[in-house]
Amino acid sequence: MKIEQPDFPIASEEFAGRLVFVTGGTKGAGEAMVRRFAAGGATVITTARQAPEDPDFPASVITGNLATAEGAAKVAAQITGTFGVPSILVQNLGGSDSPGGGFAALTDDMWMKELNLNLLAAVRLDRAFVPAMLQRRSGVVIHISSIQRLLPLHESTTAYAAAKAALTTYSKALSKEVGPKGVRVTAVSPGWINTENTAVFLQRLAESAGITTQQAQQNVMAALGGIPLGRPAWPWEVAELVAFLASDRAASIQGTEYVIDGGTVPTI
């Protein structure tokens, strides 16, 4: 699914002169973030297991595995040596492939895999880049968490939800430590996002149940307890929130978490 730009004007020089590093930025909301920062004039770097085939992809892609300490250190060293220290760091990498079956189905290896991908990758990269941000007394770090930290699905997302909850808590702690020294830290927690993977997932559900993809989408929304907005978010909508938080327009925003879920979380 092609990531479209929004149909409203974007200030083409908003991020001019900024070096932006978005982890996991070749698909879905991560790709939308890359394109949004590039449209705003930034020099953008991202990571992936494999480089995208699009010759016009608007970012330098570094291949590597951020879910290991060695992989994160290698990517950080390559970025610092080639580009310098990012002025904006968006920790978007995340996901889950743990099996269903509840807590008893999760082995230690599965737990560590979820924690490495959804928590420790961000911790390690912050440790690599934030000290230099502190030295120059400027920088922005945005951690992409998830509403799963508030609405875990015990059948299939316990480890992922726990890792994202830890990421949000860590983000708050980091903001309190580095905020007085010029580095802003915030978190963004999306709900269901309408990505290419979502489309594949809905198609699979529809085929197995003998229903339309629209009906499958309604069934998923019902399982989430409903989305009052009536639909998942589009990737560019999440990217626009991230761009705002990274911009000078959000200069006084620090240590907070922004939920973008169409109203899925039923509490304040």
TrEMBL record:
Domain of life: Bacteria
Molecular function GO terms recorded: oxidoreductase activity, acting on the CH-OH group of donors, NAD or NADP as acceptor
InterPro entries, A to Z: NAD(P)-bd_dom_sf (IPR036291), Sc_DH/Rdtase_CS (IPR020904), SDR_fam (IPR002347)
PROSITE patterns in the cross-refs: ADH_SHORT
Pfam family name, one: adh_short_C2
UniProt key word Oxidoreductase: yes
Record's keyword terms, sorted: Oxidoreductase
Alphabetized PANTHER family for the sequence: 3-OXOACYL-[ACYL-CARRIER-PROTEIN] REDUCTASE, SHORT-CHAIN DEHYDROGENASES/REDUCTASES FAMILY MEMBER
Similarity comment: family membership: Belongs to the short-chain dehydrogenases/reductases (SDR) family.
Record protein name field: SDR family oxidoreductase
Organism the protein comes from: Luteolibacter yonseiensis
Upper lineage: Bacteria, Pseudomonadati, Verrucomicrobiota, Verrucomicrobiia, Verrucomicrobiales
